[in-house]
């Protein structure tokens, strides 16, 4: 176990000011040398001054009176917050001594960012890794994974076929030398986001509006990020949590099946770690709008200026978001309208990553349209952001709606060996609180091993 370069505790990822000052200083100085293992201590939402990386979107962009606060995942090591649950899942396996260096190869089922996170963490912690993902994702993702040293095992399809990656992972896990960081079912993912992301969201609104969170929106890939909503609700019981999903493949809303292009969102299942109890609304987002919105933000500085957005702000946003971030923003605007939120109220959401892995997505969009000149971008800006409507929003607070998701979860997970009794235990909030409280047990173990 001494060969493992042990990294931060959950507390230190939540509060990097709690890291030994010498280690914190070295970690911050090593950001440009991303393969230095000290970067494990940069896995957090904070900047060098321990402030949450965020942007409060200009109201000229959102068209709503409420504040839309977006946490920025691109500043995490490897460029995405998915590195957090990848590390948390691996470190828990290490302290439990279920994952042994030099003996086990790590499996990372993913549609992209989690796979990048797994390959990056395994590079730093000196594990061999295999990332299992669909074969029709952006080439930038494959290149990043291979740059960090992982092998790729590609399954047929796109974002909409993530269940095939799960099935392949189970097949590979039959080999006793392999250990899976199964983001869709292992609860370190939930623990990271409830503790680290949830508390970052709470901190992000301290000096914004009324300092409270009225709504949290996130598109479930693994549904780990939705776990932040559980912590938000503990602090602000009136807060609503909205799960966003592609209109073209709306599994939670209506069990739908199809294909979509919002990279970073998995579907065709209700993931095991999705806490159905705290999901208040399900919102469908059209995939083309997320790509159009990304094109406007990345290439349309003059367009944004024409709508009254300050040039410096427009320039600062060009590389902050990927398609799933735009999806989350659209969902936040829709929920602000749906909930009739006014001045001073806050909707919080997440940008999982930045633009750096989506050049080919924009190239594909440009090939599909005859023109993408400014007059087109202006129309897209109005349609995607200012005119976002409240269609396709379903209230999932009633018991009957919850039961639909419980049934979906049974359909998805009984076949993978989970018992109905275990799935039924998830219908009580005590299950989730007990799992969350393991954060403090693991922090003690990490410190002891470290």
Automatic annotation (TrEMBL):
It comes from Hujiaoplasma nucleasis. The keyword Glycoprotein does not apply. It comes from the Bacteria. The keyword ATP-binding does not apply. Pfam families: PALP (PF00291). GO terms for biological process: alpha-amino acid metabolic process. The lineage of its organism: Bacteria, Bacillati, Mycoplasmatota, Mollicutes, Candidatus Izemoplasmatales. Residues 75-353 form the Tryptophan synthase beta chain-like PALP domain. This is Pyridoxal-phosphate dependent enzyme.
């Amino acid at each position: 176990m001494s060969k493992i370069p042990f990294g931060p505790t959950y507390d230190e990822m939540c509060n990097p000011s709690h890291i030994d000052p010498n280690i914190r200083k070295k970690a911050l100085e090593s950001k440009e040398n991303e393969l230095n293992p000290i970067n494990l201590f940069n896995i957090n939402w904070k900047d060098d001054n321990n402030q949450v990386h965020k942007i409060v979107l200009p109201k000229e962009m959102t068209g709503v009176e409420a504040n839309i606060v977006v946490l920025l995942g691109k500043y995490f090591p490897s460029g995405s917050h998915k590195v957090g649950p990848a590390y948390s899942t691996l470190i828990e396996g290490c302290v439990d001594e279920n994952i042994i260096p030099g003996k086990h190869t790590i499996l990372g089922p993913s549609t992209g960012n989690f796979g990048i996170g797994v390959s990056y963490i395994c590079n730093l912690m000196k594990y061999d890794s295999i990332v299992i993902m669909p074969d029709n994702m952006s080439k930038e993702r494959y290149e990043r994974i291979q740059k960090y040293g992982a092998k790729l095992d590609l399954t047929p399809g796109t974002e909409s076929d993530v269940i095939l990656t799960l099935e392949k992972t189970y097949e590979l896990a039959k080999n006793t030398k392999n250990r899976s960081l199964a983001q869709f079912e292992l609860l370190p993912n939930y623990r990271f986001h409830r503790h680290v992301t949830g508390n970052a969201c709470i901190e992000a609104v301290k000096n914004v509006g009324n300092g409270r969170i009225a709504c949290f929106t996130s598109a479930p890939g693994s549904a780990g990020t939705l776990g932040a909503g559980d912590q938000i609700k503990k602090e602000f019981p009136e807060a609503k949590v909205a799960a966003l999903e592609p209109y073209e493949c709306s599994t939670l809303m209506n069990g739908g099946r199809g294909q979509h292009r919002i990279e970073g969102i998995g579907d065709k299942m209700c993931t095991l770690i999705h806490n159905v109890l705290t999901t208040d609304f399900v919102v469908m987002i059209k995939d083309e709008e997320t790509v159009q919105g990304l094109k406007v933000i990345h290439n349309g500085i003059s367009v944004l200026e024409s709508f009254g957005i300050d040039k410096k702000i427009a320039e600062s946003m060009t590389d902050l978001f990927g398609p799933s971030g735009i999806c989350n923003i659209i969902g936040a605007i829709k929920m602000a309208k749906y909930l009739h939120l006014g001045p001073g109220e806050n909707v919080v959401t997440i940008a999982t990553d930045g633009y750096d892995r989506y050049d080919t997505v924009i190239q594909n969009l440009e090939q599909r349209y005859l023109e993408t000149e400014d007059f087109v971008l202006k129309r897209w800006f109005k349609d995607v952001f200012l005119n976002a409507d409240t269609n396709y929003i379903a209230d999932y607070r009633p018991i009957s709606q919850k039961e639909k998701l419980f049934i979906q979860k049974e359909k998805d997970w009984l076949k993978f060996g989970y018992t109905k009794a275990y799935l039924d235990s998830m219908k009580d909030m005590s299950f989730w609180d007990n799992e969350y409280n393991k954060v403090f047990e693991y922090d003690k173990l990490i410190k002891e091993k470290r």
